[in-house]
Amino acid sequence: MTVTVRFAPSPTGYLHIGNARPALMNWLFALKNSGQFILRYDDTDIERSRAEYAAAIAEDLAWLGIKPHRVERQSDRVARYEAAAEGLREQGLLYACYETPDELERRRNRARALGRPPVYDRAALKLSAEEKAAFEAQGRKPHWRFLLPNFDGDPFATRRTEVQWDDLCRGPETVDLASLSDPVLVREDGSFLYTLCSILDDIEMGVSHIIRGEDHIANTGVQIAIFRALGAEPPVFGHLNLLTTIHGEGLSKRTGALSLRSLREAGLEPMAVASLAVLTGTSHAIEPAASLEALADMVDLASVSKSAAKFDPADLKPLNARLVHAMPFEAVRERLAAQGISGDEAFWLAIRENCGTVSDAADWWHVVQGPISAAIDAQDREYIAEARALLPDEPWSEATWGDWASALKEKTGRKGKNLFLPLRRALTGLDHGPDMKVLLPVIGRRNTLARLS
Question: Does residue 253 have a known ligand-binding role?
Fold first, then answer.
């Protein structure tokens, strides 16, 4: 069996880190199993779906390193959903209901008041043709519910009906269909809810594994029943714990909280974001993976916790810095050039361990190229003059700084902080920064002489 997974976002806003988690988990699962990844836009909500959001989703996934093997749009498959719905009607498994939202809410409240679960009572199954016609004459349009298989013969005498599956993340799970309302699959305006579209797509696209958030657990029993009503065996399910903010709040596309776009614009590396999004809420230590292939080897769905995974954006900075510190020059050459930095490999290797993001290199390029505001204290002016006089001739290497400092120590008697700090301040305008033995050759003798004047 070929492993096939899917990520099915609604193009109604920008992806946030909570969306990235299932997208990445599906991609990593496909990588680990030499499988296929389908990007499937849930765009049947015509009013809210936007082409620009679909494009942004593709862009965000590409930034993370996710390259779908197949892209589908549910809006292209409406005829298939209509045919499937008609087939369910013919089997008596999809029935017309005419209650308004207010009427349904009153029934639920009444049930709660009587101490009963607020489950739909299937009253619409008792409607005669005349009663349906009367509703139609009032201008009411039916919504359509799927008749759950939780009874023997009499749909009004439900019995406990357990649907079980072995969850990739949570182990054995059970849902009792008798505790649930028959789900609405078709709205009054004839549009389809996600449930029917998703299930039919999964069947026809050969999806073998569904990996998604734990908020879908309660729906899984219903969906398994619909898979079987459509003549298909359900795929394997895995339900991930949900990412929340550090305060336990849910993430929303509408608020833009922790959007991938904002994280990218902040200069964060995709592997820092991916590593934190995937490893948070698992038993694996949170550390930056160098690639998605490496991250795939770190994650095991069975290691996912059952409690919520709190995502702290502050954790991104140290992860990002560790990735930047290990980056070879070839990995950043074009990005440095895009910032107007013409420095070579020696420059990058000299400053990378002082960069939290690649964009921080621009600050160090300014330090190297100048002009800078040299910080020379009055009591150090004679010392700086001595340093200028003793400055070695080129060519320079990493040994030059040590040779220069040794000559100055012998000449002036200075040592430690009094020896090194005035030189660093004069050459960089700062009290801290890269190791001067690697930075000095990058600054060069001409710039050094100018700053010691």
Answer: yes
Is residue 24 included in any domain, yes or no? yes
In this structure, are 77 and 199 located in the same domain?
A: yes
pLDDT digit string (tens) for 344-388? Answer: 999 999 999 999 999 999 999 999 998 888 778 889 999 999 999
Considering 369, 398, 428, which residue would you say is the last residue of a domain?
A: 369
Name residues whose C-beta falls within 8 Å of residue 65's C-beta, 6 or more positions apart in sequence. Answer: 27, 270, 271, 274, 291, 292
**Would you give the DSSP letter of residue 376?**
-
Residue 185 lies in a domain: no
What is the C-alpha to C-alpha distance for residues 162 and 179, in angstroms, rounded to an integer? 10
* Closest by Cα among 135, 223, 143, 227 to 186: 143
Q: pTM here?
A: 0.90
Same-domain pairing of 344 and 403:
no
Q: What range does the domain containing 319 cover?
A: 265-323
What pLDDT score was predicted for residue 253? Answer: 55
- 223-270 tens-digit pLDDT: 999 999 999 999 999 999 988 888 777 766 555 558 999 999 999 999
Q: Is the dihedral of CA 20, 25, 26, 31 positive or negative?
A: positive
